[in-house]
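cron nightly-structures :: item 1 of 1
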Amino acid sequence: MRAYASVPIFVLAAACGTTPGPQQGAPDAATPPVTRTGLEKCAAGMGQLHQIWSAANQHGEIVAMSGVDADNVFVVTSKDGSVKQWRIGAAPTANPVYGQPFDPDTGAVVGALALAPDGAVLAAGDDASHVLTWETVDTTLTSNVVAAADPITAIGLAADAKSALVGDLSFAGLRRWDLVAGTVGLPLTTSLWGVRAIAYVPGHDLALVAGDNYGRASVEARAAADPTAAGAAWVDNGGTSGSVRAIAITGDGARAVVAADALIAVLSIADLAGTPLATQITTGHTPVGAVLTPSGDFAATASSEGAIQLWDAHTAAAIGAPLMLANPIGLAIDGAGERLVTATKDGNVVAFACQ
């Protein structure tokens, strides 16, 4: 069992809320009403997004954070080399608790994380070009392998946690990691000049790998079982320049919300190379994380400029005004779709809910 300890909570007062978004259309008389989670109610204009807690991670500057697993656990890494797990409380406003740090400390800064959906395995990449795995039940380090010559910037973990894709910011900086054999393969052919985000598509033998193609946001698809060759690819031709920095995929594997420099795009995964379903220019919004609500109807992003923003995940339209938070690092959503969680560069973990 994971051991968790209570920690002092430094902020419990609600912070500024967003302006309520547009009302959703009334359901057809023959259609049962849609059950919305708390965050979805916020996005549908039935509440406001507020900060509900903030707790100190106690290891200085935070560098990266993972998503939330089925047990409401997430992981953050710090500039001091620590890797630490947190559990979100079951009650909507319950204080978070932290668990046993992952040991041994490798001495390098971990900048990329991927937590298995069931929370059993944590995969990570550090600035010394190593990829590592821990068994989360007892925080045992189970592998530590040299993967490349550059710091690892992205990891995508397959659903069975037996393989992963690993990326860095070099040209052809994409490799397959066989977690069973403990080996990392040679660079894979790719059109990307640096990899910043990797996500596996639920229920499909497919992974999306994202970054930029000659300075234009780009996403390419690869077979999860054999990612040697890239399949269909999307390249932004809308005139913006930059890189994809986060991807969120709907539970049915139909759509991807792509958060890039100054751009939000909604892509059809079945027609990845085709025209996006929707795009939105977002000048001054450099994403550091993106998530989707359980219905797949709404998305949220965090930006390095300090904005937590809700979006319509079909039209890419911004919903309400952003909630501002200094220096967010990453973004996650709890399993019930009730709370957004982020970390901050100054060393805190912070949660938001609809009130």
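cron nightly-structures :: done
The first helix runs from residue 38 to 43.
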